[in-house]
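From the pipeline queue, job 12 of 40. The input is one protein chain; the requested action is below.

Action: predict structure.
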Amino acid sequence: MSPRAYTTWIVTGCLALLAPVLALNLLLLANDSRHDKNRLASRWQQESGGVTYAPPINNNRAFKTLRLHDQLNDINALAFGSSTVMSLTADAWPSGIRAYNFAQSGNSLLSVLGEADYVLTHWPDRIRVMLIPLDWALGFTYHGGALPPTDLAAEQVPPPAPLPVVTALREALSLPRIQELGAILRDIARADDPRASARQFFLEPASASYRCSDGQLARDYSTVHRGLCNGFRADGSATFADQKRIGAAEAPAVIARAASASSQYAQALARAQGGPDAQLLQHLGGIVAKARSRGVEVLLFMPPLIPELDARLAASAHSGDRLRQTKAVLWQWAQQQQVTLIDGGPAERYGCLPTEFIDAHHALPDCYRKFMKQVFADRKGLP
C-alpha cells in the first residue's frame, strides 16, 4: 500500500468514527438551544414541587433567579453563597422563617454581595433575614474588587442562543462532550424503552418525570446524571444525589489530606497574606448598614467543615497562624459592625459527623440542621 493510500485509509477511518459522534453531539447542542430549559424547569418545579435544574450544572444563576421570583410572595429569608451552602434546607430554619436557598455553584462572596445589594434595593419589604457565608476555606474572603453589576430581574435571564458554527464543532468534538455522549448512549441502551429515551435526550427538553428514592417527584432537564434525582429541591437546596457520603472508614484519610500543607484550604490561607481583603469587608459593611436601615437582619457564618479539620489546621505549623489571623480579623470586624457572626468551621461543636459530608467542605442537610438549631438556640429565637 502506498503512503498516500495508507494516509487516505487512516483519514477515512477516523472520519467514519468521528462522523456519528459529531452528528449526535451537534444534535444535543441544537436541542439545548431550541428549548429554554431554565424557564421550562422553573415552571415545572413551581407546578410540581419536584427536584430539577437546568444545565449547565456549574452555572445555576439563571435557574435560581427564575425560581426566586416564583418564591418571592412566600418567603421572608434568603440564604446566599456557593455550593457549600446548598445543603441548607428550609426545614433547618426555625418556625416563622420561610427561606429560599439562593446559593449557586462557585458563587464568590463578592458576587453574593452584589446579589444581596440587589435584593435590599428592590425587595426590602419581602426579605427579613439574609444568611451570608464568609467562606475562607475556599478563599472567598480574600478576594476583593468592585461589586459586580447584578440584575436579578426575571426578564434579564437570557433565552438560549445557538452556538457559532466553529464553537459548536469544537464543543461537539471536545473530550468531555464525547465522554458525556458515551454515558448517554449507555443510558439509552439500558432504558426500558430505548426509542423513547433517545427521543428525550436528543429531541425533547427533558426526561419523563420519575420518583426519587424518598418519594419526591423529579424531572431531568439536563442530559447529565439522569434518573439519579440530582438537582435542586423546591426550597433551593441541592440533593447532591450524584455524590456519596464520606464513609466512617475513609474519614481519617480525608481529614488528613485536607489538613495537609498542600490542600486547597491550606493554600487558600497561604494566599491570604495576613487576612481577609479590606475592600471586601468594606463592601460587606455597606451591605450590613443598608440591611439595618431597611429592617433586614444579616447573619454571617463560616460554613461547616468536616469535623477535626478546622482544629488540625489551627494546630498546624503551615496554617495555624494564618487561620487565627483570618478569624481574628473577622471577629473584630463583626464586633465593630455589631453583626452576628457564627463560626461553623469546627462542625463537631454542633454535633456534625464526618459521614454527614460528601467531602471536606460540603456538609449535608443533617449537619446543617444541627448547626442551624444550635445557632438559633443560642440566639433564643428568631432574629
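Job complete. Residues 33-378 form one domain.
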